[in-house]
Design a protein that fits this description.
35% helix, alpha+beta, 16 strands
Length: 463
């Protein structure tokens, strides 16, 4: 039998980094007291109207430009109807027909056979980016057999990034989402912290034989970690292959990933396709964006969003940052990936380089092999490290000046990790770890050793 071809597409919901919600003035804050950040509009009280948040529009444009999308100068809002307890209006305002950005691409890199030295770059097409509201949150209380609703999240601005089915395994899916996460964080358009629900992934998975049409797909919903995403996709691919090879059929259904069991489980089937009854949002006019050419001369710049103005102010994206690190410091490309993947590590590395005489190629070894392994061992992030960039630079200067050996430097680093407030120099003195530079002193030590081992010396002389 011909091998199976897996096909993976992703839909990613990124919470926009904004002080207020997409269509109301309610504050956006993680873990606030339940229902403490709910406006009349969020609660869908009659007569309330949406007012579009300019910041959310700018964040979506910025993200679209960074993902090589075409920005629609005229986009539309729609109502998508469905009935959940945490959706008070009975519909979500989204952009189904004409989204804000379309036809982009995202390049990402992944290791071959888990070897950082062998990396391959792939590209996934971006179908569209649309602005939409988040729903509230249902909290199930099993002991009392009831469900509580928290509307703090209702109406928070989301960007839905729809990726074409250009991936074939969990590793590719996780690498693409990680690159997107870094881009969003670099732009500041989303904090994209998965643990706080600011980046949620739905994976569409199917399998087919080469040359055949795509198979029936299942959707694995609301995956909230890169590790779980890779596991969920790989499990679902294997499940579908086994099901088909055993003569079964794949249902077009929604599934969830159970992280404890390491498998996907059915949620609800999609056979009776839900009719969302899309309709134009009557309370919002088309969203009009401008560029330098189309911007009317008498227009108040505070009242419009200028795509060219945003484009000019885009920061260096992760791919550019990596290339600059390699060029500026002469480090290996795979090291640049590690520096960017760990939050705050690039800044730490550059601060050490500025303060030490050691070459960057040597510095990177100490940071990736020693400091990073300490941090991982103690489940700490870079900002929580008791060894500051200043202390590490101080230690590496002692090593570079040949005042201590490499072995002694590792001992000093272990002492610094205790966070007792001592400097590397103080630890070296206290532990007597200095290298002896005086030749006469060395000769005296050697002579004392020889004098104390007369029998061994005679044996050596006699062979």
């Amino acid at each position: 039998l011909a091998p199976w071809v897996p096909v993976v597409g992703l839909e990613i919901h990124a919470q926009i980094s904004s002080n207020s919600k997409l269509f109301s003035g309610s504050q956006v804050q993680f873990a606030a007291a339940p229902n403490s950040l709910v406006s009349f509009f969020d609660a869908s009280l009659p007569g309330t109207l949406p007012v579009l948040n300019r910041r959310c529009v700018e964040a979506a444009v910025m993200t679209g430009l960074a993902l090589n999308c075409s920005i629609n100068k005229r986009s539309l809002f729609d109502r998508k109807h469905y009935f959940y307890a945490d959706l008070p209006a009975g519909y979500q305002i989204t952009q189904q027909r004409v989204p804000i950005a379309v036809n982009g691409s995202l390049s990402y890199s992944l290791c071959i056979d888990n070897k950082m030295s062998q990396m391959v770059t792939k590209t996934v097409r971006i179908k569209q980016i649309q602005l939409e509201q988040d729903s509230g949150k249902s909290l199930h209380d099993d002991t009392r057999n009831q469900t509580l609703v928290d509307l703090n999240r209702a109406g928070v601005g989301l960007m839905e990034v729809v990726m074409e089915p250009d991936m074939c395994c969990g590793e590719e899916a996780a690498a693409a989402v990680r690159e997107l996460q870094l881009i969003l964080q670099t732009l500041g358009s989303s904090q994209a912290v998965m643990a706080e629900g600011q980046l949620r992934v739905d994976a569409n998975v199917s399998v087919h034989h080469p040359g055949e049409h795509y198979g029936v797909r299942t959707e694995v919903k609301n995956i909230n970690s890169l590790r779980f995403l890779a596991k969920a996709v790989d499990y679902e691919i294997q499940r579908q292959i086994e099901e088909l090879e055993n003569g079964g059929t794949i249902l077009n259904e929604t599934r969830a990933f159970d992280s404890k069991l390491g498998c996907t489980v059915p949620m609800r089937d999609k056979e009776g396709k839900q009719d969302y009854r899309f309709m134009p949002e009557p309370n919002l006019p088309p969203l009009i964006l401008y560029d330098a050419k189309s911007l009317p001369a008498n227009m108040n710049h505070q009242q419009v969003v200028n795509v060219d103005w945003i484009h000019e102010r885009l920061p260096d994206l992760p791919s550019v940052k990596r290339a600059k690190l390699v060029e500026r410091y002469g480090i290996l490309p795979e090291h640049s990936f590690t520096l960017l993947n760990e939050d705050g590590l690039t800044e730490f590395f550059e601060n050490v380089v500025k303060q030490t005489q050691m070459k960057p190629k040597k510095v990177i070894g100490w940071i990736l092999n020693d400091l990073l392994s300490y941090l991982k061992q103690h489940s700490l992030i870079v900002k929580e490290s008791p060894v500051t960039s200043f202390l590490l630079a101080d230690l590496l200067n002692l090593l570079e000046k040949k005042e201590i050996s490499s072995t002694a430097a590792k001992q000093v680093l272990a002492e610094l990790w205790k966070g007792e407030g001592k400097t590397p120099f103080e630890i070296v003195k206290e532990k007597k770890l200095e290298l002896i530079q005086d030749q006469k002193e060395l000769e005296q030590i050697c002579q004392a050793v020889i004098d104390g081992q007369e029998n061994e010396v005679i044996m050596m002389v006699l062979g």
